[in-house]
């Protein structure tokens, strides 16, 4: 009878060069989202109207940012 050979899992290596552009993109989008949720109103407003504020209004309260 032949002996069974146990399969040894080989870890997958992902080079940092492949992850870095995606990590930078995710961080940039996260910071932009955080800005619009936290500071897009009043004197620091990028847009003149309150459409962005009203769009993220519930998210502001969910994340405990006061707005009124």
Features:
0% strand, 68 residues, mainly alpha
Describe this structure in words.
The protein is mostly helical. It has a domain at 34-68. The protein contains three helices and no strands. It has helices at 16-38, 51-55, 57-62. The chain is elongated, with a radius of gyration of 23 Å. The mean pLDDT is 81. Keywords: Membrane, Transmembrane, Transmembrane helix. The chain crosses the membrane at residues 19-37. It holds the Pfam family CbtB.
Q: Could you say which overall geometry the principal axes of the C-alpha atoms support?
A: elongated
Distance between the termini: 78 Å
Rg: 23 Å
Q: How much beta, percentage-wise?
A: under 5%
- Helix coverage percent of residues? 40-55%
Mean pLDDT: 81
As residue ranges, the low-confidence spans are: none
Give the SSE order as H and E letters: HHH
């Amino acid at each position: 009878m032949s002996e069974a050979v146990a399969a040894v899992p080989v870890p997958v290596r992902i080079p940092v060069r492949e992850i870095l552009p995606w990590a930078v993109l995710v961080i940039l989008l996260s910071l932009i989202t955080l800005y619009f949720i936290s500071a897009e109103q009043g004197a620091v407003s990028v847009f003149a109207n309150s459409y962005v504020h009203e769009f993220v209004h519930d998210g502001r309260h969910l994340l405990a940012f006061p707005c009124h």
